[in-house]
């Protein structure tokens, strides 16, 4: 191959630099998104390995799953229930159900989505049992305690506005509260929320719209600011 000299060499270098800077701009535009996707994919692959290890009898794999997701599960349960005193018991019930059902998990969705689905179902059962107790013993507790748990969560770092939002969300019916929590507090995507709740995306959009309309009267002052 003949050597490249003089102007030809400069032209070649200019072309290489042009290509490099053009590629760099494209890479910078998408690199953060790619890194995020790569991290998510790595987590999914690692989760699937843990599930496979558990199927083969390695119970330490389950311990690693608990370590990885116990905080996420407890936070979601707390946001759905609003009763901090019951979150620990519900979280234990959730991971007991995970332990009993993990060998049947076929990785058709992410492990996190599956855990959140179990969390949703356990929280629904917990709220149903609590409502039954209120109806049976109205003198012991009234429905105003639905939001008292959220008020009890207030820390010195919280503002009155944050507490109002939490209480308003806690007062929503479950079918509206769950999508709001998953989308705006857990920051999950539409597809994942639909899978977790077992509803279509069109139904999800309807419930989110209706939930926002229900929240408007209680949060109108905050929205207008």
Number of helices: 9
* Morphology call: globular
Number of strands: 0
What is the CATH third-level topology name of the largest domain?
Answer: Rna Polymerase Sigma Factor, Chain: A
The residue-averaged pLDDT reads 77
Main sheet, how many strands, which sense, barrel? none
Order of helices and strands: HHHHHHHHH
Overall CATH architecture of the largest domain: Orthogonal Bundle
Class by helix and strand content?
mainly alpha
Ends: how far apart?
Answer: 70 Å
Index terms:
0% strand, Arc Repressor Mutant, subunit A, Rna Polymerase Sigma Factor, Chain: A, 9 helices, globular, 78% helix, 2 domains, mainly alpha, 225 residues
Q: What layout of secondary structure does this protein have?
A:
Blueprint: H1 6-55, H2 60-81, H3 84-101, H4 111-136, H5 148-152, H6 160-170, H7 174-185, H8 190-197, H9 201-224
Helix pairs in contact: 1-2, 2-3, 2-4, 3-4, 4-8, 6-9, 7-9
